[in-house]
Design goal:
The protein contains 10 helices and 14 strands. By secondary structure, the chain is an alpha/beta fold. α7 crosses α10. The N and C termini lie far apart (57 Å).
């Protein structure tokens, strides 16, 4: 039980209460392993099938998660009549193609972040979903957590006044290996698309759409962005200071300031154990805690949101609408353009 002075109670439904869909996984990598484990542990969703371009990888994933229908191709997965919705868990460079294939096969889609490699691809995916009348959503999983709903209520109620400044970071050291997922251009390697997208989505949720972008950063030897520092502005004079890197470990701290108060996320902000609300003088006045600590604890909430919306006949979630994913990708396009042009000009 939250102590007196707690944040508003979460409005997030129990993931187990969502109607059950038949899920298929496209791309049996590490995030798909965690997603499958989360479905099994915390929902009534049915993981029916997995598909990979490698029969061995598909079969191994099926064995790990008790999935009998292990397909040796994406086409076979998408033809599976037991699959209602496909979780696109391939590298970012394959999201566009995989999403279009799934939608054209009549499947709803949950797309792992980043939604696409660029805004053009993102718009193409959203347009196809609209033409098909099917559900599409980016798997920006921190947004669906109960603690984030409590923060959203605080901001919406005006308890910190007008939000004016967000400071947030996300970094971890990744040794340079040009064939790895993080550094490989052919796999969509990019700290902006892998970590900066989380920060940009947090800013979008708390401050709204960015209307100005200023970015600096550093490139790896093969030209992939390895570190970015971004300042975003919006029409209401809000500013976000965001830092993403794979050149060093950073605290993963976030702090939102407003005209009447502020909100602090204990690290790591994306799975924060505690959120504290401060008044205008910096005194703590309310707090909220979360017991969620791992991806397996957390990924179930986005899956449940998909099931609830689809069961109601909807094609998009109000918590992560596809138009916002396109806007975020537009911002990230500009970040990458500025970082790459500046750094290449120095070489």
């Amino acid at each position: 039980m939250e102590p007196l002075g707690g944040l508003p109670l979460s409005r997030t439904p129990d993931p187990r209460a969502a109607s059950s869909l038949g899920w298929g996984v496209m791309g049996p990598g590490s995030i798909a392993d965690q997603f499958a484990a989360s479905l099994a542990a915390h929902t009534t969703q049915r993981l029916m099938a997995v598909g990979s371009r490698s029969a061995t990888r598909s079969a191994d994933f099926g064995e790990r998660h008790g999935v009998a229908r292990a397909h040796a191709s994406y086409a076979s997965l998408l033809a599976d009549p037991e699959v209602d919705i496909v979780y696109i868990a391939t590298p970012t460079s394959h999201h566009h193609e995989g999403t279009l294939q799934a939608l054209r096969a009549g499947k709803h889609v949950l797309v792992e972040k980043s939604f696409a490699e660029n805004a053009h691809q993102a718009r193409d995916m959203v347009d196809e979903a609209q033409r098909s009348g099917l559900f599409i959503m980016e798997g920006m999983w921190p947004r669906f957590l109960p603690i984030m709903d409590r923060v959203r209520q605080v901001v919406e109620a005006g308890r910190i006044g007008d939000p004016t400044c967000l400071q947030a970071d996300l970094g971890g050291y990744e040794p340079y290996e040009p064939t790895s997922r993080m550094y490989s251009p052919s796999m969509g390697g990019s700290v902006t698309l892998d970590r900066g997208v989380y920060l940009t989505a947090l800013s979008s949720m708390l401050l709204g759409d960015a209307t100005s972008v200023h970015a600096v950063g550093a490139l790896a030897p093969n030209g992939v962005d390895a570190q970015v520092n971004v300042t975003l502005g919006n029409e209401r004079s809000g500013v976000a200071q965001l830092h993403a890197t794979m050149r060093a470990h950073t605290p993963a701290h976030a702090f939102l300031a407003g005209t009447k108060g502020s909100v602090e996320f204990a690290a790591p902000w994306y799975l924060t154990p505690r959120v504290t609300l401060f008044d205008s003088s910096g005194q703590p006045i309310a707090w909220g805690t979360s017991e969620l600590r791992t991806h397996v604890d957390a990924l179930c909430f986005e899956a449940a949101e998909c099931a609830r919306v689809i069961d109601s006949g909807g094609t998009q979630s109000s918590l992560m609408p596809p138009s916002e994913s396109v806007a975020i990708m537009t911002t990230l396009d500009e970040v990458l353009c500025q970082v790459r042009s500046t750094e290449r000009g120095r070489r």
